[in-house]
Amino acid sequence: MQPVQQYIHENKGRFLEELLELLRIPSISADPAYKGEVRRAAEYVAESLRKSGADRVEIIETGGHPVVYGEKITAPDLPTVMVYGHYDVQPPDPLDLWTTGPFEPEIRKTPLHPEGAIFARGSADDKGQFFMHLKAFEAMSANGPLPCNIKFMIEGEEEVGSANLEGFLKAHAGRLKCDVILVSDTHMIARDVPSITVGLRGLSYVEVEVQGPNRDLHSGLYGGAVANPINILAKMIASLHDENNHIAIPGFYDDVEVVAPAERKAMNEAPYDEEAYKKELDIRMVHGEAGFTTLERTAIRPTLDVNGIWGGYTGEGAKTVLPAKAFAKISMRLVPHQDPEKITELFAAHFKTIAPPSVKVQVRYHHGGYPVVTPTDTPEYLAAHKAMETTFGKAPIPQRGGGSIPIVALFENILGVKTVLMGFGLDTDSIHSPNEHYGLFFFFKGIETIPHFYQYYAELKKD
Amino acid sequence: MQPVQQYIHENKGRFLEELLELLRIPSISADPAYKGEVRRAAEYVAESLRKSGADRVEIIETGGHPVVYGEKITAPDLPTVMVYGHYDVQPPDPLDLWTTGPFEPEIRKTPLHPEGAIFARGSADDKGQFFMHLKAFEAMSANGPLPCNIKFMIEGEEEVGSANLEGFLKAHAGRLKCDVILVSDTHMIARDVPSITVGLRGLSYVEVEVQGPNRDLHSGLYGGAVANPINILAKMIASLHDENNHIAIPGFYDDVEVVAPAERKAMNEAPYDEEAYKKELDIRMVHGEAGFTTLERTAIRPTLDVNGIWGGYTGEGAKTVLPAKAFAKISMRLVPHQDPEKITELFAAHFKTIAPPSVKVQVRYHHGGYPVVTPTDTPEYLAAHKAMETTFGKAPIPQRGGGSIPIVALFENILGVKTVLMGFGLDTDSIHSPNEHYGLFFFFKGIETIPHFYQYYAELKKD
């Protein structure tokens, strides 16, 4: 391993420069106005793969943004690892809350990142994290034969629900054949508490529209006599949780996995300081489902959050309008064994049921994903464990994550392959938020750790 | 009266052209970007007053947008009428719902307006209506001595709460001395059901902010553990009405006038067709406070409407954000004898009380106004009654309006003068909405009616 680590050490500056270049491309997959930029990011990734030593590099079209593929097949009898990541990013708004431009990466020191962190949209989610794999691969390629065959599949639609990926996996199942999928798109507990994600929540994301009158009305002339769609929407949203913050959609919890008391106990032994958590978010109280701790609420319990709401006059000053329509984007995080399609249907049916006859309601389906739990007794999990232990000097602990990577369930269902979630971010990286950042310590530590994974994985598979 | 009416008849085309010119000026008082346009409208009004025969025309500065003043004093022993109106308009958004540009007036026929209606922001509220007074004044000035002294006070901040008008009235009380104030900024029941507004609701308008965490969060990592300010705001808004649609703010109804059964009975005898009302708005059901009819709900009962709401991601596609903040603009229409300041305080105190400890709440005060009821036995009411009866061929009926013209209470409190509300709009004119319009029939009928008012008023004051 010595030459590989030496190579990494000597090329740190260039690795960082190359990442910054990628971060300057505003590859916002949700906004059609950025279609060209998304493609430009794909081209940059393809070129990086080529330069790093990958063969058969190709930008493969889908119905939406393309997938970048590349591979290095060393020997047919070696195990094959496929690295998955995504080069698209979340929209950066609200823009005015960014200290520096979301696509003008800047390195600043923070209390958690004394070596500096890269502030830019996508720095942690997921450009910074998948780029570690490209650079680890480059370091290995430059220093002798690889211990595994490696494939790369870097997509451009993760932040909009990976709608075209199912078709892509089916169409290219042969080329994507592998023994395991390796993903760095999650976080660890802390710099001195390495962890590996062993569960992810699923997702159901909908947009609702409540229509009252056929046009905006003067609230003086009609107020009190005509249903106000904002008031009605507020009432409908409010009714979606009961007084214990349980979700009040009939059937919603039917398939929820009941986690064994022993596992809940183990989960609650993970390092967690509620006072520090509250202080970091500047909140007086945490807020969630009765009967569960914060660690449980974000890992093993489903949620329902309004991600956006709008209606009526939202400009400066006052306008006495009784609007025709009000809208909300609502997402539900799901846990094993909830089915996102079933949940979306339950939501839509319930939402229509609770609408009073004075309004009309529409529910539009955005995207969803299945929850996953990954095993901890597989060669890939053990390889990740040993790799992190080697570089962090401490055994990582298994952790269930609250986020969703719908693709993980797809990999299992379509390719029949398990995924290992070896992420190097922190939950404080502000992903999806203004001032997203990624610590340099984690970026370089990731690059150093990844070659060990391949080494251990090859050894464990041989046994 | 013959020469005056003849003059009006002969100048109709020009009167209309002059109004269209005024409607082309986007005098949106709420938006600082339109400050120059608001001033341009003031200048246009001043110039129109001068051309119509007014003396001492002046654009008088205030802390905000200016007031246009002009007068014609014929003889000291004649009664003095002051015309009040406003040259500012509501913001036109949502722009995409306008058939033609809000500031590109177009005349189109509609079922209710077979002669055509002028489609433009401000056409009915209030440019079209106050401009009738200028043109009636011109017709009278051009045809012999006026039966009354006439003053004009046309302001530019009505749509943002007339914040500077109290000071203005106090500062210019001498110049504004008059016997009655005449306002056309309300509507009548129908073309064949003339009516005069004898009551107006008051207003309390606030903006609320609910803050959860100190930054936008990823809803997967934090969802379920941290209070989502949109969900909380929805719950708080929902709780402001009980199951009977009574407003659930303690003390809110304490000062509400109990209208006598006889007056309620008379009110419900006004022409009103609920099926037509629902059809025109395309709603399946009206929606309001239990125990009151639609006519009562919009006239003698207070309301609470959310006029705007926003928070989180509202762009295209999906973003799984747990936002830091959510906002709403909320207005309450008030009835005699509710005090807008007291109501605003009750609201703010209650809103803070119902906020859970997991969020922080702010309430900002936009503007308010007192409710008014005007007597029906005064010379000015009788003069308006006779004037409308003369031109419409039918006695107008008294009607309480649901809207608010806060200035009416100010006139009474500061100048000690009553107001007569002789409006010529229809409630279907879409004021404050896209496609606001004003029927040509009503514009010209108003110009014809106004000279009769002065004639009758002078006669009745002499008696």
Structural commentary:
Two copies of one chain form a homodimer. Chain A is an alpha/beta fold and 463 residues long. Helices cover 34% and strands 23% of the residues of chain A. Chain A has 13 helices and 20 strands. Chain A has a six-stranded mixed beta sheet, with helices on both faces. In chain A, strands 12-14-10-15 form a four-stranded antiparallel beta sheet. The first copy, chain A, has a three-stranded antiparallel beta sheet with strand order 4-5-20. In chain A, a hairpin with a 6-residue loop joins strand 1 (55-60) and strand 2. The longest helix of chain A is centred in the last third of the chain and has 23 residues, at 440-462. The relative contact order of chain A is 0.18. Chains A and B meet through strand 10, strand 11, helix 5, helix 6 and strand 12 of A and strand 10, strand 11, helix 5, helix 6 and strand 12 of B.
Write the SSE topology:
The structure is a homodimer of 463-residue chains.
Chain A: H1 2-23, H2 35-52, E1 55-60, E2 67-72, E3 80-86, E4 106-110, E5 113-119, H3 127-141, E6 149-155, H4 165-171, E7 180-183, E8 187-188, E9 195-200, E10 202-211, E11 217-218, H5 219-222, H6 229-238, H7 261-267, H8 274-281, H9 294-297, E12 303-312, E13 321-322, E14 325-334, H10 340-354, E15 360-369, E16 372-373, H11 379-392, E17 397-400, H12 407-415, E18 419-421, E19 425-426, E20 437-439, H13 440-462
Parallel strand pairs in A: 3-6, 3-7, 7-18, 8-19, 9-17
Antiparallel strand pairs in A: 1-2, 2-6, 4-5, 5-20, 9-16, 10-14, 10-15, 11-13, 12-14
Helix pairs in contact in A: 1-3, 1-13, 2-3, 3-13, 4-12, 11-13
